[in-house]
Amino acid sequence: MSVAVVLIIAIALAFDFFNGFHDAANSIATVVSTRVLAPRLAVVWAAFFNFVAFVIFGTAVAATIGKDVVHQDVLSNSVIFAGLVGAIVWDVVTWYLGLPTSSSHALVGGMAGAAVAAAGWEALITSGLRKIAVFIVLSPIIGVLLGFTLMVIVYWAFHRYHKVDKLNRGFRRMQLVSAAAFSLGHGANDAQKTMGVILALLIANKIVSPTAGVPLWVVLSAHTAIGLGTLFGGWRIVHTVGSKITKLQPVQGMCAETAAAAALFFTAHAGIPVSTTHTITGAIVGTGTTQRLSAVRWGVAQRVVWAWVLTIPGAFAVAWLVYLPFKGFS
Amino acid sequence: MRVGRRPLFFAALAAICLGLVPATPAEFRWVNFTMAGLALLWAVAIGIEEIAAGRGPGRRRQS
Predict the structure, then answer these.
(1) pLDDT tens-place string over residues B29-57
(2) pTM over 0.95, yes/no
(3) How many folded domains does chain B comprise?
(4) Closest Cβ opposite residue B16 in set A135, A137, A289
(5) Which domain holds residue B31?
(6) Torsion angle (degrees, nearest 10) of CA A136, A139, A145, A148
(7) Domain limits of chain A?
(8) Contact assignment for B20 to A134 by CB distance below 8 Å
(9) ipTM of the complex
(10) CB A283, CB A143: distance < 8 Å
(11) B6: which chain A residues are within 8 Å (Cβ-Cβ)?
(12) Residue contact A141–B31, C-beta within 8 A
């Protein structure tokens, strides 16, 4: 394995760490905002379930990122490097601005931008990108609808139950389970994106064959990186998602996390890289909508949507620029 | 008679899901149809509830 490959793997794992730093905190946003767990404990809780996700889920999302975004023959060390740098720069900028954007889509945008800079638009696999693009829109909608539906079911089941304090205690306990489920879904989906990049790198350098699965050391290192990233931060994002979009009760937190976890389990199984941020934000909006539409702070939600819209073009442009000097060399 | 904003919100979600059907890969189109169905169900149910409870904007204006 060359020094360049080791360096790019380190950058990929750094991206995964930033993903944890930037995105994974969403896993515990609702637990923190409903005061079920103290922030420190909640972060440890999420990091643990981020890590153990590899035991339960396969690597279908990694295969999509590694093989369905950019044609294999275009992938090179410089393309993957530029793609990663584009995604990291975009993530850092949006983290600084406190926007819950998507690291996943930044990665797709970055890889696409670098590949286009290297070999033109033909480098892109349109069928793979189309699947990702459709689910950029569908994943928050799934979150809204499942979150709303779950809230209605819970309200209907408990509407005659008058011991509100006891009920809230029960929902608080259940929120620990739902937060764990969401963290599992997050670990499964987001850690796999880094695995996909490393897989593409290993294939490009002929270290593994194009038909091979993801090596175990890649799986373990990606989950470790995202778990550590979760441990170290993302509080600005937690604050935006957890308390600014709508004010949450324990029951809403539980329903939002369960709905988002269900969506993430499905997409991880189907190999669709979606944004965990999009999904949990949609689910929170869905639970807030059971009260009334004005319970949702649409100004913040609108800012979030703009961040989503800009993520792929933004990361694409940065990666394209980063690749240009390499083009001069080649 | 006018309905409130929530039925329209869910109807809009259904429209987006159905609008994305042509772009969605064939093996995942069931997701669009399922979500559109769920959204329409809630649009209709909330619409009926608002009319029955007299909470729609039109009814409020009458009272």
Answers:
(1) 999 999 999 999 999 998 888 888 775 55
(2) no
(3) 1
(4) A137
(5) 5-62
(6) -110
(7) 3-324
(8) yes
(9) 0.85
(10) yes
(11) 289, 292-293
(12) no
